[in-house]
Amino acid sequence: xxxxxxxxxxxxxxxxxxxxxxxxxxxxxxxxxxxxxxxxxxxxxxxxxxxxxxxxxxxxxxxxxxxxxxxxxxxxxxxxxxxxxxxxxxxxxxxxxxxxxxxxxxxxxxxxxxxxxxxxxxxxxxxxxxxxxxxxxxxxxxxxxxxxxxxxxxxxxxxxxxxxxxxxxxxxxxxxxxxxxxxxxxxxxxxxxxxxxxxxxxxxxx
Length: 206
Hints:
This protein starts with 11 loop residues before the first helix and ends with a helix. It is built from 10 helices and no strands. By secondary structure, it is mostly helical.
């Protein structure tokens, strides 16, 4: 927890740098890519900017990443670990002991995230919409979104909820919808989603 009491999502501009401790060129490139892709998407960020910000030679960049798309793939993998596993699921599990409480705590984490000045929405949704579902990066984003749904389904199974896969799909709609609403400026989107989430748990309780 920092001095502002923020113990949830680390900031986009330093998350990868802290996690990777970029001592070598590959890690520096990936740390810069994390900052830029999470904030601006894929198409707006060029290879030349990535190279300049990373402080590496063009040959060094391409030695580590054969193409910009391969770097985006590495970014998505890192985003899944830092954002989905560590920040969202990890924080939710720290806030409650029971699976249903951990599910609801996801929206407490979201609520704090939505109020931050560096709120950057969900990179998987952003890249899917930017690149389309048939593009390899769009398909990879779909796969990572499915992993998020898998975490929810696992908690639903632990909670003994009925039809956990169907529950997870409905729950994921609430998660994605609240992120989009927050992007529109609704800072209370997480609270609204959490209320509906409570009704969904009741609906799936045996």
